[in-house]
Design a protein that fits this description.
The complex is a heterotrimer. Chain B is mainly alpha-helical. In chain B, 73% of the residues lie in helices and 0% in strands. Chain C has one domain: Alpha-Beta Plaits (2-Layer Sandwich), CATH 3.30.70. The chains are: A alpha/beta, B mainly alpha, C alpha+beta.
Chain lengths: 448, 205, 66
Amino acid sequence: MTMAPANETVDEATGGAARPYASGLPRLLPLVPGVPEDLRAHLARHGRLPYRGGPGLLIGSVEEAGLTGRGGAAFLVSRKLAIVARARGRKVIVANGAESEPASHKDALLLRAAPNLVLDGLQLAAEAIGAREAYLYLHPGVSPEILRALNQREAAGLDWLGVTIVEAPPRFLAGQESALVNRLGGGPAVPTFVPPRVSERGLGGAPTLVQNVETLAHLALIARYGPRWFRALGTAQEPGSMLTTVHTQPSGGSAGSSPPGQHNTQIIEAEIGTPLRALIHQDSVQAVLIGGFHGTWLPITTIGTLTLDNEALKTHGAALGAGVIAALPADRCGLAEAARVVRYLAAESAGQCGPCLNGLPRMAAALAELSGRGHRRQTRTDLERWAGLVTGRGACNHPDGTVRFVRSALTVFAPEISLHARGLCSATNRTPFLPLPGGMPMTEDDWT
Amino acid sequence: MSGTTAFWYASRATGVVALLLLTAVLVLGILVNRQGRLPGLPRFAVTSLHRNISLLAVAFITVHVLTAVLDTFVSIPLLSSVIPFASGYERLWLGLGAISFDLMLAMIITSLVRGRLNRILWRAIHLLAYLCWPVAFAHSIGSSKDLQHGWLLDLSIACALIVAAAALWRLASAARQLPRAARVAAILAQHAPHATRQAHERISR
Amino acid sequence: MADTLRVNPINCSGHGVCAELLPELVTLDEWGYPIIANSPVPPALDLEARRAVAACPALALKLLRA
C-alpha cells in the first residue's frame, strides 16, 4: 500500500537557494535533487563512517549538538541514548522508518535518496548504546535503494551490526513506539500500556532505543562534523535542519508546475526557525495544518509571523510534529477536510481502550454532521464533551492528537460551521486536499 | 448416635452443600466475566459473592474432608484429599475429589496473589474451573450412594444442568463478541456509516 | 507518601466495580469506563483504594507509588 496518493508529484527541494541565511543546506538530502546517493557518492560527500570505538563515546557530542527527535515527539536524543546506554544486559536498536502519517513523505524520501546516512546513524547509535540487535522498521514495499545500500555496505564491511528489516502494517499507529516493539516481537502493531517505557523494557524485555530515520541521519552527520557544525543552523533551543513535507496548491505560474487544481507535495529540508511564509505562498490559502493529522490548524493570518520551530509554534498551541505543513487552498471546505481526516483517525484506532474506541467514531460522526447541511445544536456540545472524555484516557496519544486536530479545526473553521448551519458552504472546489489512504482495518491481519 | 456415624453424616452433608456452593461460584464467575448484574445489587456484590462463596466452599470441603478422615468406619488418609488416588477406599472417586480440590486450591491461591501474577497465567489457571466442576461432580455422584437416587439425585442433576446451561451461554457470548480488530469498524459503521459522503453531498450553494 | 491511582485502559473492560467502591476518586463516563481523579490518594481513602484495586475483575486498576 502506498502512502502517497496518485496524481501528485513529490518533489524534493533544498530550499537553500531561496534563503541567504540558510547556506549549508542541504545536509540530509542529496546535493542534486532527485538523484539518490549510493554508497560511493555518500562516502565521497561525507567521508568514512566515524565509529568511536566503544559505547557511550558519541553521546557527549549528540548532547552538545542538542539534537531532538525528528519523528514527532522531539525528545532530546542524547537523553534517550544515555538511558539505554546505562542499562545492563541485552539492548536493541530500531530505526523507525514506518512513516504512518499519510501526509508525511519525508522519511520515505530520505530512505530512497540518502539511505546510507540513515544506516550510518543506526550503526553509530547502536555502538553508542552497546546494542547487539538492530532493526529497520519499514512499511511494505521496501525501496530497492535501501536493500542495495545494505548489500553494498555488507560487501564493504561497513556495518558492525547486521540489520534486520521488519515490515510494519500500513496503520497510523504502526510507528508508535510501543506498537513498534509489539510488532517486532511478533504481535500486532498496537500500542501497549506504558510504563515501562520501551527504553527501559522493550523487545523481549530488553531496553530498546527507537529512533526516527531522519534523527539517525542527523546523528550520522553530527558524528562527522561535530556539534558546532550542527548548531550553525537552527535556533539555540532547536538547532539544526529538518525535513518538512509541504502540501500546497500551486497557483498558475509558480515554479514546478502542475496545472491549477492539482495538489503539489514537496519535501523541503529547511533550517529550523525558517519563517513559514518562506515555505508556503500565502495567497489563496485559508488555513495551514502544522504537524500532521495529530497537529494543529492555524488561520492564515498567523502564518506571516510564525517560524518553523516549536518555541514559536507553542504560542499558538501548535508543534512541528512530523514536519507536515499543509496549506489548505481557499477554494476548499476546511470542515469537509477535517471530517475526512477524523474519520480516518477513528478507523485507525487500535480499539483497545474504551474511551478511544467509543469516542473517536462518535466525534467523526459529529464532524461529518457539521460538514453537512445543517446540524443539531446538540452535536456541537456532544463533540466538545467527547473531546474532553477521550483526552488522556487511552494507552497512547492517539485520542489526544485527534482532539488537538479537532479542536483547532473547530476554531479555525468556525465561520465555515456557521455557513454550513445555514445550508451553505464557501467551497468552490470539492476535490479532497489532504491525502488519505483508502480502506479500513477489519481483521487482526491488518495489524500485522 | 455413635461418633463415627456423626462424622460420616457430617461429611456427606458438607459434601452436598459444597457442591451447591461450587455451582453458585461457577455461575457467579461467569456473571462477573460477562459484567452481569444480580437484580437490586451493586456490581461489587457480584465479585464479592463470587469470591466469598468460593472461600466458603473451601471451608465446607475442608470440614467434608476432615470428618471423612476422622470417621473410623473406613480408613481414609488425610493426604488423599490432595494427592489423587492415594486412598484405599473408593480410590477412583476420592481421587477425583482430590483432583478437583487441587484445582480449586490452585485457583484460589493464584487469585489471592493476583496482583503479583502475570495476567495471562492467572486467567489460564482460572479457566480450570470448567474442568474442576465436572470432576467435583463426578466425585460427588460416584463416591456417595446418597446422590445416586431420590431428591439428592434430582438436586445433583439440577446443578449439572445449571452449570451446562451457564457454560453454553458463556461460549455463545464469547462467539458473539467482536475481536479487537473488528470493533472499531463496527462502531464506526454504527455511528458514521457514510461520513465521507455526508460531507459534501448535502451541501447546497 | 501518597500513591496515585491509575487504570490500564487496555485491560479495563468497563466493569465499573472501582467506581462503586471508590466514588470519591472514580466516576464512570457515558460508556462505563472509569475517569480517575489525577490527584494522589488521600490517606483516609488508602484502604478503600487498595480494596478497589483488588476487586477489579480485569486487574486493570493500579496504585502507583508517588
